[in-house]
Design a protein that fits this description.
With about 350 residues, the protein is of the alpha/beta class. The chain has 2 domains: about 170 residues, 3-Layer(aba) Sandwich (Rossmann fold), CATH 3.40.50; about 180 residues, Dehydroquinate synthase-like - alpha domain (Dehydroquinate synthase-like, alpha domain). It has 14 helices and 11 strands. The protein has a 4-stranded parallel beta sheet. Strands 1-2-9 form a 3-stranded mixed beta sheet, with helices on one face. A two-stranded antiparallel sheet has the order 7-8. The radius of gyration is 20 Å and the shape is globular.
Length: about 350
């Protein structure tokens, strides 16, 4: 087992990475002094695979857990599901001495964290992410929230978990499309911060796709360490942390205009990264070879790299609802080759995106 730490003073927390952690979570939470009264939040798919094992282990460790579920899918990451969970907690008699455990992918983790941040003005929660995307990205860093029909993640809060327990064996029950989608966020770390990791991903492609445990643990470890380093320096995205949005500005447009759930988040990010790299090339920050290296690696992981055809007016409207717009000016995360990046305000985004999307 690998243990990392997100260092945020009195809100610091461990990230544990290994195999079999779902069935050993009780001991880990007891060691943390976590609340004994627990609501495990999941969806029917993940609960059917792992809830019994987790609940049994929690009871064995002296916890009193109940299971609450929300429907499965990005389209259910909304205020209706938020209210469903709030009602469940209230009806079950939860109080400020209680805690939540998110067992699932990014939707479950984001929802659970947002509920934890606002139920009785804040109770503790723990992340047990079961999708690759959640393991390498959304479970770490304290971003919580829900979508609005007009934009993704527009409602939420920064609220850190007490721990993140990552069991890579859960990836073996993940549908192939979901696993591939998660790899987009992994590739992102190589592009924006770590050229050697980018090269390693290409070299380890077969082992990763074959779900070899050693490769999975190492891949998740590097991804989480990269994100932890960034979060420690900029918890609430005032500057540096915004580089984690590489590929997300246009990616969120793809999700919103396609309809939530039609395109997986990671698939949309893959498309968005290629669009961002093409803009970076247009502005002189990277070469044709860099764009092709990114495109080739994404394709090798069965990820899409070509945007659906959208009306440019709709694209710009959706883009200007993005959280990264400041004082009416769009800021783009652009790669500098492979392994570095920058954040650039853009004065004429319509012309840029028109040139890239309609060459």
């Amino acid at each position: 087992m690998v243990e990392l730490k997100v260092g945020l003073g009195d809100r610091s927390y461990p990230i544990l990475i290994g195999e079999g952690l779902v069935g050993a979570a009780g001991q880990k939470l007891a060691k943390l002094g976590f609340a004994r009264r627990i609501a495990v939040v999941s969806n029917p798919t993940v609960a059917g695979l792992y809830a019994d094992s987790l609940m049994t282990d929690l009871r064995r460790a002296g916890f009193d857990p109940v299971l609450l579920t929300v429907p499965d899918g990005e389209e259910y990451k909304n205020l209706d599901s938020y209210q469903l969970l709030m009602t469940g907690l209230i009806e079950s008699g939860f109080d400020r001495g209680s805690g939540l455990v998110a067992l699932g992918g990014g939707v479950v983790g984001d929802l659970t964290g947002f509920v934890a941040s606002s139920f009785l003005r804040g109770i503790p929660f723990v992340q047990i992410p079961t999708s690759l995307l959640a393991q390498v990205d959304s479970s770490v860093g304290g971003k919580t929230g829900v979508n609005h029909p007009l934009g993704k993640n527009l409602i939420g809060a920064f609220y850190q978990p007490k721990a993140v327990l990552i069991d890579v064996s859960t990836l073996k029950t993940l549908p192939a499309r979901e696993f591939h989608a998660g790899l987009a966020e992994v590739v992102k770390y190589g592009v924006i911060r770590d050229r050697e990791f980018f090269t390693w991903l290409a070299q380890q492609r077969e082992n990763i796709l074959a779900l070899h445990s050693e490769a999975l643990v190492r891949m998740v470890e590097i991804s989480c360490q990269t994100k932890a380093d960034i979060v420690e320096n900029d918890e609430k995205e005032k500057g540096l942390r915004a580089i984690l949005n590489f590929g997300h500005t246009y990616g969120h447009v793809v999700e919103t205009l396609s309809g939530y759930g039609k395109v997986r988040h990671g698939e949309a990010v893959a498309i968005g990264m290629v669009v961002a790299a093409q803009i970076a090339r247009h502005m002189g920050y990277c070469s044709d070879a860099d764009v092709e290296a990114l495109r080739s690696l994404l394709v090798s992981f069965s990820l899409p790299v070509i945007s659906p055809a959208f009306d440019l007016d709709r694209v710009m409207t959706a883009m200007y609802r993005d959280k990264k717009v400041q004082a009416g000016q769009l800021r783009l995360v652009l790669n500098r080759g492979i392994g570095d990046c920058c954040i650039e305000p853009v004065d004429q985004p319509r012309d840029l995106f028109s040139a890239v999307l309609n060459p």
